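RESIDUES AND SHAPES:
===
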Amino acid sequence: MKIILDTNFLMAVTQFKIDVFTQLRGNELYTIDKVVDELVKHSKTKAKKASAAKVALKLVESKGLKVLLSKENDTDTALLEYSKNGYCIATQDRLLLDQIKKSGSKAIYIRQKKYLLIK
């Protein structure tokens, strides 16, 4: 399965200290350029999210995630378009999860801070 990891999903990996990469082994893992841009933006702030964003950026690099280019200006819109083209989206964003479900596509999210569920 081709899976695109969203910004908040990558940051949740750090916050919840779960190894999603082991659970997703055997799948093709991607992210999109807009997600990388958001992570860079978060990593430069002084907010709590900054350290999670820095770790997420390192994970993108160390796990060899392929970065797909998007034509859309909005990250969620780009992810929704990719979901319509057969990609499964890994996200913690409730609104995006609902939109993906309505479009008939698949999404993955973290449940109880330790399990991955496909919706």
In short: The domain at 2-118 is CATH 3.40.50.1010 (Rossmann fold).
